[in-house]
Amino acid sequence: MEPKYIINVHGHLRHDQDVAARITLWRKLNVRKFCALCLAPDAARAHGGYYTNEDLLPWLRRYPDLLVGMGALELGRQPDRADAVDRLKEQGFTGLKFIASYYPYNHELYFPLYERAEALGMPVFFHTGWLASAADGSDGRYGINAENYRPYMLDKIARAFPRLKMIGAHLGKPHGDEALQMITAYPNVYYDFSGGSGKKPHELWVAKTLSPCFSDADMSDPAENPALGYFHKLCFATDNPEPPVWIEASNRIMDRLCIPDDLRERFYWRNACEVFGWKEDDL
Ligand SMILES: [Zn+2]
């Protein structure tokens, strides 16, 4: 089954890439929106040339129909204040990207940022789960600690800001059960399961995490196959590989879990429309 459209809620642009060529490929694949997640300057450098907010701005102006800017904030020992969120909104960013914070995501020092994002209708995208070490070995100095990015850190935020739309990344690997609890409990929390470069060990971990408890489950019964519920809140994402890798992997995962066509449409684009408030006409 070919989905009607594709929205990629999690990707990055990097300096060593031909961005125009990538965009040509995406259009051929019927990708209608690409959420470009920016990193703060230190993290962008440490992780090998990811785009910062400044790097993305000219591309946002060039491809406003396709590129969706997710702006990075300073989340270190002295985090940005709420007016930084206003600035990103004015510059044309649609949402925010949280990663590599010094404090746990649910620390109240960050609450003014969430409060402003909620007021402005800006979805927040969170890296969750283990975070790869910086290529240059610098991240220990910045207090990077994957414990601070567990999916359960979204619990307090979801309770405090019920109108703030959130997407967590990587199904919180290795804490998949926490991620699934969040999407099941909170209407404003969604997830992607990208990661691991889309390679087989990651794909199999995702499939196993979303699978029923017992192998003799009736796959058409949501009580026995809980993935029929999860796919109301899961969104298509690639992180680093190009879309074909994750279209094929996602289809294999959904085949294994007997996901019907209407839920596949939700996964490929409808759930993302709910997060960002887009109508079909906007795609
Ligand atoms: Zn990413």
What's this model, at a glance?
The protein has helices at 19-28, 41-46, 53-62, 83-91, 111-120, 153-160, 176-185, 200-210, 227-230, 243-256, 261-276; strands at 6-11, 31-37, 67-72, 95-98, 124-126, 166-168, 189-192, 234-235.
Describe, in plain words, how this protein is organized in 3D.
The chain has one domain: TIM Barrel. Strand 1 (6-11), helix 1 (19-28) and strand 2 form a beta-alpha-beta unit. The chain is 38% helix and 12% strand. The mean pLDDT is 96. The longest helix has 16 residues, at 261-276. It is globular, with a radius of gyration of 18 Å. Helix 4 packs parallel to helix 5 (111-120). The protein has helices at 19-28, 41-46, 53-62, 83-91, 111-120, 153-160, 176-185, 200-210, 227-230, 243-256, 261-276; strands spanning 6-11, 31-37, 67-72, 95-98, 124-126, 166-168, 189-192, 234-235. An eight-stranded parallel β-sheet has the order 1-2-3-4-5-6-7-8, sandwiched between helices. The two termini are 19 Å apart. The chain has eleven helices and eight strands. The protein has 283 residues and is of the alpha/beta class. Bound molecules: zinc ion. Residues 10, 12, 37, 239 line the site of zinc ion (ZN).
